[in-house]
Amino acid sequence: MPVTDLANPTRFLTLVNRVLPWLVAATCVLFAIGLIRAMSAPDDYQQGATVKIMYLHVPAAWLGMFGWGLMSIAALGTLVWRHPLADVAGKAAAPIGAAFTFICLVTGSLWGRPTWGTYWVWDARLTSMLVLLLLYLGVLALYWTAEEPGRGARAAAILSLVGAVNLPIIKFSVDWWNTLHQPASVFRMGGSTIAPALLTPLLIMALAFTLLFVTLHLAIMRNEILRRRVRSMRLVQAQELHA
Amino acid sequence: MSAFTALLIRDMRLAVRVGGGALMGALFFLIVVAMMPFAIGPDLAQLARIGPAILWLGALLASLLALDRLFATDHDDGSLDLLMMGPIPLEFSVATKAIAHWFTTCLPLVVIAPVLGLMLNVELHAMGWLALTLLAGTPALTFIGLVGAALSVALRRGGLLLAVLVLPLTVPVLIFGVAAANAAIVGPAPFGPPFTILCALSLASLVLGPIAAAAALRHGLE
Protein backbone atom coordinates (compact mmCIF):
# COMPACT_ATOMS: atom_id res chain seq x y z
CA MET A 1 0.00 0.00 0.00
CA PRO A 2 1.64 3.29 -1.05
CA VAL A 3 1.91 6.20 1.38
CA THR A 4 -0.55 8.28 -0.64
CA ASP A 5 -3.29 5.75 0.19
CA LEU A 6 -2.92 6.73 3.84
CA ALA A 7 -4.18 10.21 2.94
CA ASN A 8 -7.60 8.68 3.29
CA PRO A 9 -8.35 8.84 7.04
CA THR A 10 -10.65 5.83 6.93
CA ARG A 11 -7.94 3.62 5.40
CA PHE A 12 -5.48 5.01 7.92
CA LEU A 13 -7.85 4.17 10.77
CA THR A 14 -8.32 0.57 9.61
CA LEU A 15 -4.55 0.18 9.32
CA VAL A 16 -4.01 1.68 12.79
CA ASN A 17 -6.68 -0.53 14.33
CA ARG A 18 -5.01 -3.58 12.79
CA VAL A 19 -1.45 -2.64 13.78
CA LEU A 20 -1.99 -1.10 17.21
CA PRO A 21 -2.55 -4.30 19.29
CA TRP A 22 0.68 -5.80 17.90
CA LEU A 23 2.57 -2.60 18.66
CA VAL A 24 1.24 -2.52 22.22
CA ALA A 25 2.29 -6.16 22.72
CA ALA A 26 5.75 -5.58 21.23
CA THR A 27 6.24 -2.47 23.41
CA CYS A 28 5.30 -4.40 26.58
CA VAL A 29 7.63 -7.32 25.70
CA LEU A 30 10.54 -5.01 24.90
CA PHE A 31 9.99 -3.01 28.10
CA ALA A 32 9.93 -6.23 30.13
CA ILE A 33 13.19 -7.47 28.57
CA GLY A 34 14.79 -4.03 28.78
CA LEU A 35 13.84 -3.46 32.43
CA ILE A 36 15.02 -6.93 33.49
CA ARG A 37 18.30 -6.46 31.63
CA ALA A 38 18.67 -2.96 33.08
CA MET A 39 18.07 -4.20 36.63
CA SER A 40 20.56 -7.03 36.28
CA ALA A 41 23.19 -4.84 34.61
CA PRO A 42 26.28 -4.19 36.76
CA ASP A 43 26.42 -0.96 38.78
CA ASP A 44 28.80 1.77 37.84
CA TYR A 45 32.02 1.65 39.87
CA GLN A 46 31.62 5.30 40.88
CA GLN A 47 27.90 6.04 40.73
CA GLY A 48 26.60 2.73 42.11
CA ALA A 49 22.97 1.91 41.44
CA THR A 50 22.04 5.47 40.47
CA VAL A 51 23.42 4.78 37.00
CA LYS A 52 20.19 2.85 36.35
CA ILE A 53 18.39 6.16 35.88
CA MET A 54 20.30 6.31 32.61
CA TYR A 55 18.02 3.61 31.14
CA LEU A 56 15.07 6.02 31.39
CA HIS A 57 16.92 9.31 31.00
CA VAL A 58 18.86 8.73 27.78
CA PRO A 59 16.04 7.17 25.70
CA ALA A 60 13.69 9.95 26.90
CA ALA A 61 16.19 12.57 25.77
CA TRP A 62 16.57 10.95 22.35
CA LEU A 63 12.82 10.74 21.86
CA GLY A 64 12.27 14.28 23.09
CA MET A 65 14.43 15.42 20.18
CA PHE A 66 12.95 12.79 17.83
CA GLY A 67 9.52 14.29 18.53
CA TRP A 68 10.55 17.67 17.19
CA GLY A 69 12.07 16.02 14.12
CA LEU A 70 8.79 14.24 13.50
CA MET A 71 6.89 17.51 13.95
CA SER A 72 9.14 19.24 11.40
CA ILE A 73 8.60 16.51 8.82
CA ALA A 74 4.86 16.66 9.49
CA ALA A 75 5.08 20.46 9.12
CA LEU A 76 6.59 20.05 5.65
CA GLY A 77 3.75 17.65 4.89
CA THR A 78 1.21 20.23 6.05
CA LEU A 79 2.68 23.29 4.32
CA VAL A 80 4.22 21.83 1.15
CA TRP A 81 2.20 18.75 0.23
CA ARG A 82 -0.98 19.59 2.12
CA HIS A 83 -1.19 15.97 3.21
CA PRO A 84 -4.47 15.70 5.14
CA LEU A 85 -2.97 13.56 7.89
CA ALA A 86 0.24 15.57 8.29
CA ASP A 87 -1.26 18.17 10.63
CA VAL A 88 -2.84 15.36 12.67
CA ALA A 89 0.61 13.72 12.89
CA GLY A 90 2.23 17.01 13.95
CA LYS A 91 -0.40 17.72 16.56
CA ALA A 92 -0.13 14.20 17.96
CA ALA A 93 3.67 14.37 18.19
CA ALA A 94 3.75 17.62 20.21
CA PRO A 95 2.41 16.38 23.58
CA ILE A 96 4.39 13.10 23.41
CA GLY A 97 7.61 14.94 22.60
CA ALA A 98 6.93 17.41 25.40
CA ALA A 99 6.25 14.53 27.82
CA PHE A 100 9.50 12.73 26.92
CA THR A 101 11.46 15.96 27.24
CA PHE A 102 9.87 16.49 30.64
CA ILE A 103 10.74 12.90 31.70
CA CYS A 104 14.29 13.54 30.54
CA LEU A 105 14.52 16.70 32.66
CA VAL A 106 12.97 15.09 35.75
CA THR A 107 15.12 11.94 35.61
CA GLY A 108 18.17 14.06 34.85
CA SER A 109 17.47 16.20 37.88
CA LEU A 110 16.96 13.11 40.10
CA TRP A 111 20.21 11.68 38.72
CA GLY A 112 22.00 14.97 39.29
CA ARG A 113 21.20 15.05 43.00
CA PRO A 114 23.40 12.04 44.03
CA THR A 115 26.08 12.51 41.34
CA TRP A 116 26.49 16.27 41.08
CA GLY A 117 25.08 17.11 44.51
CA THR A 118 22.27 19.32 43.22
CA TYR A 119 18.91 18.89 41.50
CA TRP A 120 19.51 21.52 38.91
CA VAL A 121 22.60 23.00 37.37
CA TRP A 122 22.65 25.48 34.52
CA ASP A 123 24.68 23.12 32.45
CA ALA A 124 24.57 23.26 28.67
CA ARG A 125 22.67 20.02 28.00
CA LEU A 126 20.08 20.53 30.72
CA THR A 127 19.54 24.08 29.56
CA SER A 128 19.04 23.15 25.91
CA MET A 129 16.56 20.45 26.91
CA LEU A 130 14.76 23.06 29.01
CA VAL A 131 14.57 25.42 26.02
CA LEU A 132 13.29 22.49 23.94
CA LEU A 133 10.55 21.93 26.53
CA LEU A 134 9.68 25.65 26.42
CA LEU A 135 9.42 25.46 22.61
CA TYR A 136 7.16 22.40 22.90
CA LEU A 137 4.97 24.30 25.37
CA GLY A 138 4.82 27.21 22.88
CA VAL A 139 3.57 24.86 20.16
CA LEU A 140 1.02 23.38 22.56
CA ALA A 141 -0.08 26.92 23.49
CA LEU A 142 -0.66 27.60 19.78
CA TYR A 143 -2.89 24.54 19.53
CA TRP A 144 -4.78 25.50 22.68
CA THR A 145 -5.50 29.04 21.53
CA ALA A 146 -6.49 28.24 17.94
CA GLU A 147 -10.23 28.35 17.42
CA GLU A 148 -10.21 26.26 14.30
CA PRO A 149 -8.03 23.10 14.06
CA GLY A 150 -6.72 23.69 10.52
CA ARG A 151 -5.55 27.22 11.26
CA GLY A 152 -3.83 26.16 14.48
CA ALA A 153 -2.14 23.29 12.65
CA ARG A 154 -0.68 25.59 9.99
CA ALA A 155 0.56 28.06 12.60
CA ALA A 156 2.12 25.24 14.61
CA ALA A 157 3.72 23.85 11.44
CA ILE A 158 5.45 27.17 10.79
CA LEU A 159 6.59 27.37 14.40
CA SER A 160 7.92 23.79 14.18
CA LEU A 161 10.02 24.66 11.15
CA VAL A 162 11.28 27.89 12.74
CA GLY A 163 12.15 25.85 15.82
CA ALA A 164 13.90 23.21 13.72
CA VAL A 165 16.14 25.92 12.24
CA ASN A 166 16.68 27.46 15.66
CA LEU A 167 17.29 24.35 17.76
CA PRO A 168 20.83 23.68 16.45
CA ILE A 169 21.64 27.37 16.99
CA ILE A 170 20.25 27.24 20.53
CA LYS A 171 22.19 24.01 21.17
CA PHE A 172 25.40 25.58 19.88
CA SER A 173 24.95 28.82 21.80
CA VAL A 174 24.10 27.08 25.06
CA ASP A 175 27.15 24.82 24.64
CA TRP A 176 29.25 27.90 24.08
CA TRP A 177 27.65 29.50 27.13
CA ASN A 178 28.48 26.69 29.54
CA THR A 179 29.84 23.18 29.43
CA LEU A 180 29.87 20.93 32.45
CA HIS A 181 27.91 17.91 31.30
CA GLN A 182 29.84 14.99 29.88
CA PRO A 183 30.17 15.02 26.09
CA ALA A 184 28.31 12.54 23.89
CA SER A 185 29.44 9.02 24.74
CA VAL A 186 27.17 6.51 23.03
CA PHE A 187 27.41 7.42 19.35
CA ARG A 188 30.77 8.91 18.53
CA MET A 189 33.80 8.39 16.38
CA GLY A 190 35.93 5.48 17.57
CA GLY A 191 33.10 3.55 19.20
CA SER A 192 31.12 3.90 22.37
CA THR A 193 32.76 4.61 25.73
CA ILE A 194 30.01 2.78 27.61
CA ALA A 195 30.78 -0.81 28.60
CA PRO A 196 28.81 -3.35 26.52
CA ALA A 197 27.17 -4.75 29.68
CA LEU A 198 25.56 -1.34 30.22
CA LEU A 199 25.11 -0.50 26.53
CA THR A 200 22.98 -3.49 25.46
CA PRO A 201 20.17 -2.85 27.99
CA LEU A 202 20.31 0.84 27.06
CA LEU A 203 19.77 0.08 23.39
CA ILE A 204 16.92 -2.33 24.22
CA MET A 205 15.34 0.38 26.37
CA ALA A 206 15.81 2.92 23.57
CA LEU A 207 14.01 0.58 21.19
CA ALA A 208 11.23 0.04 23.75
CA PHE A 209 10.83 3.80 24.21
CA THR A 210 10.72 4.30 20.44
CA LEU A 211 7.99 1.69 20.11
CA LEU A 212 6.13 3.37 22.97
CA PHE A 213 6.42 6.68 21.11
CA VAL A 214 5.11 5.16 17.87
CA THR A 215 2.25 3.38 19.68
CA LEU A 216 1.18 6.52 21.52
CA HIS A 217 1.56 8.58 18.36
CA LEU A 218 -0.69 6.32 16.30
CA ALA A 219 -3.25 6.12 19.12
CA ILE A 220 -3.32 9.92 19.52
CA MET A 221 -3.59 10.37 15.75
CA ARG A 222 -6.56 7.99 15.73
CA ASN A 223 -8.23 9.88 18.57
CA GLU A 224 -7.60 13.21 16.86
CA ILE A 225 -9.19 12.00 13.61
CA LEU A 226 -12.21 10.75 15.54
CA ARG A 227 -12.36 14.01 17.52
CA ARG A 228 -12.39 16.02 14.28
CA ARG A 229 -15.16 13.82 12.91
CA VAL A 230 -17.21 14.43 16.04
CA ARG A 231 -16.56 18.14 15.67
CA SER A 232 -17.69 18.30 12.04
CA MET A 233 -20.73 16.14 12.84
CA ARG A 234 -21.66 18.57 15.61
CA LEU A 235 -21.24 21.51 13.21
CA VAL A 236 -23.50 19.83 10.65
CA GLN A 237 -26.03 19.07 13.39
CA ALA A 238 -25.99 22.68 14.59
CA GLN A 239 -26.53 23.90 11.02
CA GLU A 240 -29.44 21.53 10.55
CA LEU A 241 -31.02 22.71 13.79
CA HIS A 242 -30.59 26.27 12.65
CA ALA A 243 -32.15 25.58 9.24
CA MET B 1 8.71 57.22 -4.08
CA SER B 2 9.34 53.49 -4.03
CA ALA B 3 7.02 51.09 -2.26
CA PHE B 4 9.71 50.39 0.33
CA THR B 5 10.12 54.00 1.48
CA ALA B 6 6.39 54.65 1.28
CA LEU B 7 5.59 51.71 3.55
CA LEU B 8 8.53 52.50 5.83
CA ILE B 9 7.46 56.13 6.29
CA ARG B 10 3.80 55.20 6.75
CA ASP B 11 4.60 52.69 9.49
CA MET B 12 7.03 55.00 11.27
CA ARG B 13 4.51 57.86 11.17
CA LEU B 14 1.82 55.63 12.60
CA ALA B 15 4.12 54.39 15.35
CA VAL B 16 5.25 57.86 16.32
CA ARG B 17 1.88 59.59 16.13
CA VAL B 18 -0.42 57.00 17.65
CA GLY B 19 -0.14 56.89 21.41
CA GLY B 20 3.52 57.85 21.62
CA GLY B 21 4.45 54.30 20.57
CA ALA B 22 8.13 54.98 20.06
CA LEU B 23 8.69 56.51 23.48
CA MET B 24 6.63 53.94 25.32
CA GLY B 25 9.19 51.20 24.73
CA ALA B 26 12.03 53.41 25.93
CA LEU B 27 10.00 54.40 28.99
CA PHE B 28 9.34 50.74 29.77
CA PHE B 29 13.07 50.03 29.38
CA LEU B 30 13.87 52.84 31.82
CA ILE B 31 11.36 51.54 34.37
CA VAL B 32 12.54 47.91 34.13
CA VAL B 33 16.14 48.98 34.64
CA ALA B 34 15.17 51.31 37.49
CA MET B 35 13.30 48.49 39.24
CA MET B 36 16.33 46.17 39.19
CA PRO B 37 18.30 47.85 42.02
CA PHE B 38 15.22 47.59 44.25
CA ALA B 39 15.28 43.83 43.77
CA ILE B 40 19.05 43.32 43.74
CA GLY B 41 20.19 46.00 46.15
CA PRO B 42 22.03 49.28 45.58
CA ASP B 43 25.53 47.80 45.74
CA LEU B 44 27.29 49.59 42.86
CA ALA B 45 29.99 46.95 42.39
CA GLN B 46 27.41 44.22 41.99
CA LEU B 47 25.30 46.37 39.67
CA ALA B 48 28.34 47.05 37.50
CA ARG B 49 29.01 43.32 37.25
CA ILE B 50 25.49 42.41 36.11
CA GLY B 51 24.75 45.74 34.38
CA PRO B 52 25.12 44.43 30.80
CA ALA B 53 22.82 41.51 31.59
CA ILE B 54 20.18 43.84 33.06
CA LEU B 55 20.36 46.14 30.04
CA TRP B 56 20.08 43.24 27.58
CA LEU B 57 17.18 41.68 29.44
CA GLY B 58 15.40 45.04 29.66
CA ALA B 59 15.91 45.64 25.94
CA LEU B 60 14.63 42.14 25.14
CA LEU B 61 11.43 42.70 27.14
CA ALA B 62 10.94 46.22 25.79
CA SER B 63 11.36 45.03 22.20
CA LEU B 64 8.54 42.53 22.77
CA LEU B 65 6.26 45.26 24.01
CA ALA B 66 4.90 46.75 20.80
CA LEU B 67 5.23 43.58 18.71
CA ASP B 68 1.61 42.51 19.00
CA ARG B 69 0.59 45.80 17.37
CA LEU B 70 2.85 45.17 14.38
CA PHE B 71 0.14 43.45 12.35
CA ALA B 72 -2.91 43.72 14.61
CA THR B 73 -3.94 47.28 13.65
CA ASP B 74 -3.28 46.62 9.96
CA HIS B 75 -5.33 43.47 10.21
CA ASP B 76 -8.22 45.33 11.87
CA ASP B 77 -8.45 48.16 9.34
CA GLY B 78 -7.88 45.90 6.33
CA SER B 79 -4.59 47.34 5.12
CA LEU B 80 -2.92 44.00 5.76
CA ASP B 81 -5.20 42.45 3.13
CA LEU B 82 -4.13 45.19 0.70
CA LEU B 83 -0.47 44.40 1.41
CA MET B 84 -1.11 40.72 0.84
CA MET B 85 -2.88 41.32 -2.47
CA GLY B 86 -0.55 44.08 -3.63
CA PRO B 87 2.18 43.77 -6.25
CA ILE B 88 5.07 43.73 -3.75
CA PRO B 89 6.04 40.27 -2.43
CA LEU B 90 4.59 39.79 1.03
CA GLU B 91 8.02 38.81 2.39
CA PHE B 92 9.34 42.19 1.30
CA SER B 93 6.52 44.27 2.79
CA VAL B 94 6.66 42.26 6.02
CA ALA B 95 10.41 42.90 6.23
CA THR B 96 9.79 46.61 5.61
CA LYS B 97 7.29 46.73 8.44
CA ALA B 98 9.82 45.03 10.70
CA ILE B 99 12.51 47.57 9.77
CA ALA B 100 10.10 50.41 10.56
CA HIS B 101 9.32 48.70 13.86
CA TRP B 102 13.03 48.41 14.62
CA PHE B 103 13.55 52.12 13.93
CA THR B 104 10.69 53.20 16.18
CA THR B 105 11.01 50.67 19.00
CA CYS B 106 14.55 49.31 19.18
CA LEU B 107 16.62 52.28 18.05
CA PRO B 108 15.37 54.43 20.99
CA LEU B 109 16.43 51.60 23.31
CA VAL B 110 19.93 51.61 21.81
CA VAL B 111 20.11 55.38 22.21
CA ILE B 112 19.08 55.49 25.87
CA ALA B 113 21.02 52.34 26.88
CA PRO B 114 24.23 54.32 27.67
CA VAL B 115 22.28 56.63 29.99
CA LEU B 116 20.79 53.65 31.80
CA GLY B 117 24.26 52.12 31.89
CA LEU B 118 25.40 55.12 33.93
CA MET B 119 22.73 54.33 36.52
CA LEU B 120 24.04 50.77 36.73
CA ASN B 121 27.63 51.96 37.19
CA VAL B 122 28.82 50.50 33.87
CA GLU B 123 32.22 51.98 33.04
CA LEU B 124 32.12 55.01 30.76
CA HIS B 125 34.59 53.74 28.19
CA ALA B 126 32.52 50.56 27.74
CA MET B 127 29.24 52.34 27.11
CA GLY B 128 29.83 52.68 23.38
CA TRP B 129 30.59 48.99 23.06
CA LEU B 130 27.49 48.10 25.02
CA ALA B 131 25.33 50.25 22.75
CA LEU B 132 27.07 48.65 19.76
CA THR B 133 26.08 45.15 20.91
CA LEU B 134 22.47 46.30 21.28
CA LEU B 135 22.61 47.93 17.84
CA ALA B 136 23.87 44.69 16.32
CA GLY B 137 21.59 42.36 18.26
CA THR B 138 18.20 44.07 18.43
CA PRO B 139 17.44 43.47 14.70
CA ALA B 140 17.54 39.75 15.48
CA LEU B 141 15.01 40.31 18.29
CA THR B 142 12.73 42.24 15.92
CA PHE B 143 12.90 39.72 13.09
CA ILE B 144 12.37 36.72 15.39
CA GLY B 145 9.51 38.61 17.04
CA LEU B 146 8.09 39.26 13.56
CA VAL B 147 7.33 35.53 13.22
CA GLY B 148 5.55 35.52 16.58
CA ALA B 149 3.58 38.63 15.62
CA ALA B 150 2.47 37.05 12.34
CA LEU B 151 1.46 33.80 14.07
CA SER B 152 -0.50 35.55 16.78
CA VAL B 153 -2.36 37.84 14.37
CA ALA B 154 -3.23 34.80 12.23
CA LEU B 155 -4.78 33.21 15.32
CA ARG B 156 -6.24 36.52 16.55
CA ARG B 157 -4.49 36.10 19.88
CA GLY B 158 -1.93 38.54 21.16
CA GLY B 159 -0.09 39.47 24.28
CA LEU B 160 1.15 36.55 26.32
CA LEU B 161 1.02 33.97 23.52
CA LEU B 162 3.48 36.07 21.55
CA ALA B 163 5.93 36.26 24.45
CA VAL B 164 5.62 32.50 25.06
CA LEU B 165 6.40 31.78 21.40
CA VAL B 166 9.16 34.30 20.89
CA LEU B 167 11.20 34.30 24.10
CA PRO B 168 12.67 30.74 23.83
CA LEU B 169 13.82 31.52 20.29
CA THR B 170 15.75 34.57 21.48
CA VAL B 171 18.02 32.56 23.79
CA PRO B 172 21.01 32.64 21.39
CA VAL B 173 20.70 36.41 20.88
CA LEU B 174 20.65 36.99 24.62
CA ILE B 175 23.64 34.69 25.20
CA PHE B 176 25.87 36.26 22.58
CA GLY B 177 24.66 39.80 23.25
CA VAL B 178 25.51 39.60 26.94
CA ALA B 179 28.72 37.71 26.18
CA ALA B 180 29.89 40.43 23.78
CA ALA B 181 28.92 43.20 26.19
CA ASN B 182 30.71 41.49 29.08
CA ALA B 183 33.78 40.89 26.92
CA ALA B 184 33.89 44.60 26.10
CA ILE B 185 33.48 45.71 29.71
CA VAL B 186 35.25 43.23 31.95
CA GLY B 187 37.05 40.92 29.55
CA PRO B 188 39.21 38.83 29.47
CA ALA B 189 37.49 36.95 26.64
CA PRO B 190 37.87 38.64 23.25
CA PHE B 191 35.01 40.85 21.99
CA GLY B 192 35.23 39.67 18.37
CA PRO B 193 33.79 36.12 18.34
CA PRO B 194 30.54 36.73 20.27
CA PHE B 195 29.99 40.04 18.48
CA THR B 196 30.39 38.56 15.00
CA ILE B 197 28.09 35.67 15.91
CA LEU B 198 25.57 38.25 17.16
CA CYS B 199 25.78 40.02 13.77
CA ALA B 200 25.36 36.65 12.03
CA LEU B 201 22.23 35.95 14.09
CA SER B 202 20.80 39.32 13.06
CA LEU B 203 21.56 38.76 9.38
CA ALA B 204 20.19 35.21 9.39
CA SER B 205 16.97 36.29 11.08
CA LEU B 206 16.70 39.22 8.64
CA VAL B 207 16.44 36.61 5.86
CA LEU B 208 14.49 33.83 7.58
CA GLY B 209 12.13 35.90 9.75
CA PRO B 210 10.22 37.61 6.90
CA ILE B 211 9.89 34.32 4.98
CA ALA B 212 8.41 32.56 8.01
CA ALA B 213 6.22 35.55 8.92
CA ALA B 214 4.85 35.86 5.36
CA ALA B 215 4.13 32.12 5.32
CA ALA B 216 2.33 32.44 8.66
CA LEU B 217 0.18 35.31 7.35
CA ARG B 218 -0.64 33.52 4.10
CA HIS B 219 -1.54 30.26 5.78
CA GLY B 220 -3.32 31.86 8.70
CA LEU B 221 -5.47 34.42 6.92
CA GLU B 222 -6.50 32.44 3.87
Would you mind describing this structure in some detail?
The complex is a heterodimer of chains A (243) and B (222). In chain A, 78% of the residues lie in helices and 0% in strands. Chain A is mainly α and 243 residues long. Mean pLDDT of chain A is 81; it is low at 179-183. Chain B is mainly alpha-helical. Chain B has one domain. Chain B is built from ten helices and no strands. Chain B has helices at residues 3-17, 21-40, 44-65, 69-77, 79-85, 90-119, 127-154, 160-166, 171-185, 192-221. The model of chain B has no long low-confidence stretch (mean pLDDT 83).
List keywords for this structure.
heterodimer, A: 243 residues, mainly alpha, 78% helix, B: 222 residues, 10 helices, 82% helix, elongated
Describe the structure concisely.
The complex is a heterodimer of chains A (243) and B (222). By secondary structure, chain A is mainly α.
Kindly, what is the distance between the CA atoms of the first and last residues of chain A, rounded to a whole number of angstroms?
A: 42 Å
Radius of gyration of chain B: 18 Å
**How would you sum up the major sheet of chain A?**
none
| End-to-end Cα distance of chain B | 30 Å
Name the poorly predicted regions of chain B: none
Described by the principal axes of the CA atoms, the overall outline of chain B is: elongated
Oligomer: heterodimer
Q: Helix segment count of chain A?
A: 6
Largest interface: A-B, 30 and 25 residues
Put simply, the count of helices of chain B is: 10
User: Which secondary-structure class do the elements of chain B indicate?
Assistant: mainly alpha
Q: How many strand segments of chain A?
A: 0
Write down the domain tally of chain A.
1
Radius of gyration of chain A: 20 Å
Overall 3D form of chain A: globular
Task: Give the helices and strands, then pairings.
The complex is a heterodimer of chains A (243) and B (222).
Chain A lengths: L8 H32 L13 H28 L4 H31 L7 H22 L3 H29 L18 H47 L1
Helix pairs in contact in A: 1-6, 2-3, 2-5, 2-6, 3-4, 3-5, 3-6, 4-5
Chain B lengths: L2 H15 L3 H20 L3 H22 L3 H9 L1 H7 L4 H30 L7 H28 L5 H7 L4 H15 L6 H30 L1
Helix pairs in contact in B: 1-6, 2-3, 2-6, 3-6, 3-7, 3-9, 4-7, 6-7, 6-10, 7-8, 7-9, 7-10, 9-10
